[in-house]
Amino acid sequence: MNIWDIVIILLVALAVGAAVRKMILNKRSGKSNCGCGCAECSRNCSNRKSQ
Amino acid sequence: MQLNELSVGSSAVVRTVGGNGALRQHFLDMGLIPGTNVTVVKLAPMGDPMELRIRGYELTLRLDDASQIEIEPVETPQNDENITEKKKHKYHPGLGEEGYHMCHASDHKNPLSAGTVLTYALVGNQNCGKTTLFNQLTGSNQHVGNFPGVTVDRKDGPIRGHDNTLVTDLPGIYSMSPYSSEEIVSRNFVLKDKPKAIINIVDATNIERNLYLTMQLLEMGIPMVVALNMMDEMTGNSGSVDINGMEEMLGVPVVPISAAKNEGVDELVKHAIHTAKYQEKPDNQDYCDTADSGGAVHRCMHAVEHLISDHAQSAGIPVRFAAGKVVEGDSLIIDQLDLDDNEKEMLEHIIIQMEKERGLDRSAAIADMRFRFIEKVCRETVVKPEESREHRRSEKIDRVLTGKYTAIPCFILIMVIVFYLTFNVIGAWLQGLLETGIELLGNEVSVLLDSAGVNPVLHSLVMDGLFAGVGSVLSFMPIIVIMFLFLSLLEDSGYIARVAFVMDKMLRKTGLSGRSIVPLLIGFGCTVPAVMSTRILPSERDRKMTILLTPFMSCSAKLPIYAFFVSAFFPGRGGLIMSGLYLLGVISGILASLLYKNTLFRGEAVPFVMELPNYRLPGIKNVTQLLWEKARDFLQKAFTVILVATVVIWFLQSFDFRFNMVDDSQNSILAALAGFLIPVFRPLGLGDWRICTSFITGFIAKESVVSTFQILFSDDIHSALTTVSAAALLVFSLLYTPCVAAIASIRRELGNRWAVAVVGWQCAVAWIAAFIVRLVLTAMGV
């Protein structure tokens, strides 16, 4: 395993970690059911909260 | 004579309004009351519905519903009195100028304690500019459209520069008698959430009908400011409003504004804050006149007020508002008042006596009382504008777009142009450009990884996983954004309202109303907002049926799937195959609606009572903002859900259960997991575990189907699929269950049972359709 292998593993882990974190945050804040948190999903789920 | 018998261009006076229930109340609330002048403007191309001019605006109505309205034809319509000459010239403020605001003379009696959040309800008719004003007030970027019912749920935000405020933008309503579910949202908010003040936005160019809601809001006794919107258009067409006179008659501050041009908004904010802070309630709530038709309604209203005042107070409902609703017979309010049987009987006697003396039934008498007051206000304070440029322009455009022989060809032509430009010209060109860019980047990265001597497993993860998956999905962004651009242009211009008008008769044959066309067209963009927009439909039956049909409209997230397989199996026939798929979706939807109509949802579609807005040029800011929002959403989706799904799929197809990397993905974890679906898809010619996997990932997000294919098949897609099975796959992808976000929105609107049923039903329909396509193509020897 060379240094580039470690860099790539770290970068991919970072990207996946950030994506999962974002999805969890979206879900927890009620912005989304699916975790994606785009405007449609956010609107969809925040409306549910408001009812 | 009935209204449906009146010929185009003829005028009449309404004599009686038949029918019953919410629809009749809606007619009355829209101003169709005995004694009103109506003129038939035109009939829809298929002869039904009809467009009427009433109280200075255009209303559409089905012939069946119009047959319940009795009329007396008149030679020439009675013009609204020319009040210009009667007016004395007196000072009154213009846009953004200070008025007298006699309403703020309450000595600041009831100031709210410091730190209290000043909550406002932004209430007004549909399509009068509430969301535009909300965006100006709060600095937010909510989508604004030119169609009645763009806002289907409430949205909140503080006024810019005033942190202790909260404005709630509510769906547009015509009156406080709830007719559709969006109107119930607004009414419940005002009644139950008890905002500190109301900002009532009134379309100055259509003032009579808009003031009807104002009357009802004033009756609620909540501090209120009236924002007279579109004053620029009013004054630009030689109209004007005596602001001080109107304030005096309504008993609340009236502020002339132009929300679109941000004129007068600062003054409105100043008055809104003052009114809420000092809880300045309307000075006047008593609009019944002792001299009006012998004072029957006046006596009745006051008698009812006295009788129910204790009940109204304990139920927390404003007395005057409750009295009006009791007389109208609003069962929701009557139940909340918890009246004694004796009281109910007494009230009934009072109301019957009023009906006898007034010569009108209870609902019509109350509506008439309000409109009489409005007419008085308009007579005293409003110089009506001449026919506006916008209206003249709209009439000219409508001669073609809703003309008897031109409407349907125009609709087809417009849709063909939209699809052609999206798939073949602009979208396809931009997609090609992005695809080339991503490919070049991929090649460079691959060379870099090779030269750096990166481990083959990691090389595979980056190239076969991330680049193949996320990269392939990203390249479809332009097509999706362009599709939304066209849908937004159609909606913002006001054309979609015409489509509803033109298509009503055709849709009624399938058990739907013309208004259902709006959610269905939005469904071509995304199923989630399409499902939500069904709230503009006033009947539960129509809502359910329309929601169940939206999955048949091919959403834009399926475009990458079509584009991917078309380029692989049907090169050079992209436009034809894609149009065919869209058409197949529509045909399947029509067949499903006929099935629903004769099984689950027997009965008639909801009456078509709708206002046709003037055509407007879509605002560049609005459109740009929508495009940016869609692009950002797509990027967010690509780098969250799809990125994670891509890495998971790559991992599951690269390793076996002992976490050893496999040479042949046939031995991978994924192959074992997806294997149980193979028997289901084998009859469709899709009995490959990789195809089954892509369908599963497509449930998370439709774009994932393509990224999964890219990872699992690399370059040997032709080894697993024939042209016939590719066609079956396209049909299955078109019709099978919508993504999880869409199912979540269906669950919210209809409940768990329906959501599960939609998943099962769509999969079954998709399987059957794909099987038929396979059989037909095989029989044809393709």
Structure description:
Chain A has 51 residues and is mostly helical. In chain A, 75% of the residues lie in helices and 0% in strands. Chain A is rod-shaped and about 40 Å long. Chain B has 782 residues and is α/β, with parallel strands linked by helices. Helix content of chain B is 56%, strand content 9%. Chain B is built from 32 helices and 14 strands. In chain B, helix 15 runs antiparallel to helix 17 (477-493), helix 22 packs antiparallel against helix 30 and helix 24 packs parallel to helix 28 (704-713). Residues 80-89 of chain B have low confidence and may be disordered. The chains are: A mainly alpha (51), B alpha/beta (782). The A-B interface holds A 1-2, 4-5, 8-9, 12, 15-16, 19-20, 22-23, 32-41, 43-45, 47-48, 50-51 and B 153-154, 449, 452-455, 458, 461-462, 466, 526, 528-529, 532, 629, 632-634, 636-637, 639-641, 643-644, 647, 700-701, 739-741, 744-745, 748.
Question: What's the tally of helices of chain A?
Answer: 2
Give the termini separation of chain A: 54 Å
Query: What share of the residues of chain B lie within helices?
Result: 55-70%
Instruction: Compute the average pLDDT of chain A.
Output: 70
Distance between the termini of chain B: 62 Å
- State the order of secondary-structure elements of chain A, H for helix, E for strand: HH
Poorly predicted sequence stretches spanning 5 or more consecutive residues of chain A: 46-51
Secondary structural class of chain B: alpha/beta
**What is the helix content of chain A?**
over 70%
Query: Main β-sheet of chain A: number of strands, strand sense, barrel status?
Result: none
Strand content of chain B: 5-15%
Count of alpha and pi helical runs of chain B: 32
Measured on Cα atoms, how large is the radius of gyration of chain A?
Answer: 16 Å
Strand count, sense and closure of the main sheet of chain B? 6 strands, antiparallel
Q: What form of chain B results from the Cα inertia axes?
A: elongated
Would you report the number of β strands of chain A? 0
